[in-house]
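Subject: design request, 384 residues
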């Protein structure tokens, strides 16, 4: 009932319908500076500071693969595809015993596709990976944004986890060493009010609130000026459009959602769609999850006939016949200076990019104008 919107997990595969006072403890600028320069060249590498980037995509949707390949080439990172599976591919015996059969097979297929990406992360012993769905979109300054995010999220992990608890399951990550999920592209989170958060002021890549994705959760209780980005420990999240997972996180999620759900299933309902289950795992404390607010990444829909819809909810279509409805778009959701919306400008070598919307303070920005940003730790808004 709480999660009545059963289609949330697939929201990114479909057409997105539309779009307390805290005390400040300044982080020493010197310290931050040294730390960020230590890590900046790994975050700007071709795997964005993790070991691999996976995009989940149906092998037949070659058009969506074009978007991801072209967009990542413009932003200089490398993506590997994970074949999304369809209900036809599902062996009924793969369902965990506690799967909630009220959800549709297509929702299980979407969850299983994410689990396959996590399985690969564990299989290849990747220290960390980014997993995205195939209609993700990101800001042209993603690499700079990620460096700022890393400063924030590292500040929230002051100590490493005890190494004996997870031998070989975490490596030195530029995003810190005590995280399971960095939920970068979401459509709603709950920030833990009993934990410190981090505020990064004057971020020119934040859309104004009226252009936020439709968020399925309330705004965090932490104070946030419109131009500041908040980073916090989360107790829930929705939409698995793009996230980073550590090896430890991938192991834990694979255990909870497939290999051995019995223990956790007694306490939390993990028989739901992937994003809903993931949010519950974050809330249970079994995995440690962080997120920026608003989300760092968003979604893209190219110009297409309205009737086409999504891989999951759209018409099937017939080869050689157009889909019904007027052509609409392209649209970007949640990203102010969208890579995919600006692809022609970028390919023409223009020096500026256009904002996704006209009614924003800055409608055109120079490439490279965004800088790595420092910020400050904020005290919990609620005392335990
Ligand atoms: C990018 O940096 C990360 C973190 O240091 C590292 O694990 C990864 O292997 C690097 N990627 C490449 C392609 O060198
Ligand atoms: C923040 O954004 C909201 C919604 O767009 C707007 O109503 C409000 O005036 C903004 N606040 C400031 C200080 O600009």
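Subject: RE: design request

Done. Sequence follows.
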């Amino acid at each position: 009932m709480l999660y009545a919107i059963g289609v949330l997990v697939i929201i990114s595969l479909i057409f997105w319908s539309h779009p307390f006072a805290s005390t400040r403890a300044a982080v020493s600028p010197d310290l931050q500076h040294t730390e960020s320069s230590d890590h900046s060249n790994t975050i700007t590498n071709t795997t964005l500071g993790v070991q691999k980037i996976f995009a989940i995509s149906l092998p037949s949707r070659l058009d969506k693969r074009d978007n991801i390949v072209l967009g990542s080439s413009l932003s200089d990172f490398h993506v590997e595809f994970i074949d999304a599976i369809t209900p036809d591919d599902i062996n009924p015996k793969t369902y965990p015993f506690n799967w909630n059969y009220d959800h549709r097979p297509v929702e299980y297929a979407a969850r299983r596709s994410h689990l396959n990406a996590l399985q690969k992360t564990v299989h290849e012993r990747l220290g960390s990976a980014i997993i995205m769905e195939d209609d993700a979109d990101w800001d042209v300054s993603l690499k700079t944004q990620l460096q700022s995010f890393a400063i924030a999220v590292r500040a929230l992990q002051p100590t490493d986890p005890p190494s004996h608890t997870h031998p070989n399951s975490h490596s030195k990550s530029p995003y810190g060493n005590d995280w399971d999920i960095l939920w970068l592209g979401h459509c709603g989170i709950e920030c833990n009010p009993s934990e410190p958060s981090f505020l990064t002021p004057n971020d020119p890549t934040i859309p104004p609130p009226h252009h936020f994705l439709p968020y399925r959760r309330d705004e965090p209780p932490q104070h946030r000026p419109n131009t500041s980005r908040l980073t916090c420990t989360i107790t829930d999240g929705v939409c698995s459009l793009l996230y980073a997972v550590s090896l430890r996180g991938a192991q834990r999620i694979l255990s909870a959602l497939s290999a051995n759900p019995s223990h956790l299933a007694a306490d939390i309902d993990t028989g739901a769609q992937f994003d809903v289950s993931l949010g519950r795992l974050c809330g249970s404390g079994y995995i440690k999850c962080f997120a920026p607010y608003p989300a760092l990444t968003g979604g893209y829909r190219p110009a297409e006939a309205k009737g086409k819809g999504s891989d999951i909810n759209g018409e099937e279509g017939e080869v050689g016949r157009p889909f019904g409805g007027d052509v609409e778009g392209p649209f970007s959701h949640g990203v102010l200076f969208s890579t995919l919306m600006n692809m022609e400008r970028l390919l023409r070598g223009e020096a500026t990019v256009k904002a996704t919307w006209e009614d924003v303070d800055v409608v055109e920005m120079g490439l490279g104008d965004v800088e790595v940003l420092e910020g400050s730790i904020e005290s919990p808004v609620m005392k335990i």
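Residues 1-37 have pLDDT under 50 and may be disordered.
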